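Memo to structure team: turn this sequence into structure tokens by end of day. - J.P.
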Amino acid sequence: MEPKLAIRNLSKRFGDLQALEGINLEIAEHEFVCIVGPSGCGKTTLLRIIAGLETANGGEILIDGKGVRAPGADRGFVFQADSLLPWRTVWKNAVIGLEINGLVSQETREYTRSLLKLVGLEGFDHYYPAQLSGGMRQRVNLARALALNPMVLLMDEPFSALDAQTREIMQSEMLRIWRSGHKTVLFITHQIDEAVYLADRVIVLGRRPGRVKEIVSVDIPRPRELNVKRKPRFIEYVDHIWQLIENDVRDSVIEEGAHRGGRRLAGQAISQE
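Reply from structure team:
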């Protein structure tokens, strides 16, 4: 069966910096896939290329066998920050994608209202972002992306700005929402336990240039309750993935610290001149 999303020999360079190299992935329809890896390994760059927001230097992205090179309504993108427009209400933020793409109709309006109910925001249509909690704003963000009824939902660390308790609830809610529509989801996270909890498979990227280090299939039955995180099998998955990236994460932290130290020394030298 042809994959819903295929990534073929993808590479990306920023000047002299090789961000991604030789990425090959196939994601099936309705599959929930998470990507983890050390900082700077190209996770967000990969997602932006799939979304059509960045251009690859080599390789291709295929959805249902057709190449994609620009943004389109077949892909929904949920950013790390909620990116809501503060002067627009919950309803106006939820339908903005429909407006931009000229897709506003009675049918799409009704579908968007059903999405706001699905994400737990029924009755909040006339609220503004400043009146909402962080978790509620991300629910609007998710409803906005789903309103276009995309084939593939791309999510870039959407819960990273939330407190620990809200993040746990949003993970559970994410699976509930996914089960209701069974979109194909590609989800980036720094949290290994979040990846194992959400995913059918976890793609582990190695240190820059980003390459696929291992693909871990998560054989934990669905539906998954939050207490599954305390089960031995779950902990085994988390430990295995951490062992795959531990050295890369350590090297990335050391490299980042060296760069920061170099910038501070350079700044001191300039200030003394």
